[in-house]
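Quick one, probably user error.
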């Protein structure tokens, strides 16, 4: 039986509406099921070289980088029974930095007994050596002789976001006495003032061992100007072969 013109028109309208409904339903299902690739979807996609790292992501895959290296970690015993810890942490990566990386300091006596443990965070700019100084890590009757610094495995490495302004230590003069001190001159060649700059001074003996450390904060180093940092100790120690003063700068 042939369809009338009105029936054909009705069929076309119904068919078109059904097709449109199917397209809309497909789009809805696709939008619900499909997830746009991102750098935090826990999948390796969009040209990433690892899960959520490499490619267009800011995070760099850690397998391609050097892990932070502990140049040395040393327990410093003071006459009053307090033990400080000084360590140097090295980031050898030229184009990778890490912000708020978690590390743990462990302090032991000569028999291997654990005396103290402390966790903290550190920023490691690209290709840098950053001192870690922990004052009063232990105070007790036992002899603290060994210190270790370890990092959590889940370190987030990213490309440097901006050039870090680092003050130059132009001189560091050691003065011996009942209360030794180091006076350091700092130069800021940038057009921006630096505020609350934390610095660590470390004294080394002729064998290259750290024998004393102290830290201070300089409130301001003027733009294209200078400032003085003073480090003090309450007890004397042997004349050092050299003294290093290193800024500890937070990443932006």
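Nope, works fine. Designed sequence:
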């Amino acid at each position: 039986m042939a369809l009338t013109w009105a029936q054909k028109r009705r069929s076309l309208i119904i068919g078109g509406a059904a097709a449109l409904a199917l397209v809309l339903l497909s789009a809805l299902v696709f939008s619900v099921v499909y997830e746009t690739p991102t750098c935090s979807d826990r999948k390796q996609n969009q040209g990433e070289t690892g899960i959520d790292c490499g490619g267009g992501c800011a995070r760099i895959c850690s397998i391609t980088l050097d892990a932070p290296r502990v140049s040395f970690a040393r327990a410093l015993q003071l006459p009053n029974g307090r033990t400080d810890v000084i360590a140097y942490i090295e980031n050898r990566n030229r184009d990778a930095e890490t912000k708020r990386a978690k590390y743990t300091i462990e302090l032991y006596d000569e028999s291997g007994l654990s005396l103290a443990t402390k966790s903290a965070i550190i920023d490691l700019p690209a290709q840098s050596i950053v001192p870690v100084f922990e004052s009063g890590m232990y105070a007790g009757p036992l002899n603290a002789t060994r210190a270790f610094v370890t990092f959590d495995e889940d370190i987030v490495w990213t490309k440097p976001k901006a050039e870090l302004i680092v003050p130059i230590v132009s001189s560091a003069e050691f003065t011996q006495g009942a209360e030794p001190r180091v006076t350091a001159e700092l130069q800021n060649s940038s057009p921006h003032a630096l505020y609350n700059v934390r610095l660590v001074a470390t004294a080394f003996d002729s064998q290259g061992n750290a024998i004393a450390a102290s830290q201070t904060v300089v409130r301001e180093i003027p733009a294209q100007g200078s400032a003085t940092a003073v480090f003090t100790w309450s007890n004397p120690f042997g004349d050092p072969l050299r003294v290093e003063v290193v800024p500890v700068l937070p990443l932006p």
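The CA atoms of residues 101 and 168 lie 25 Å apart.
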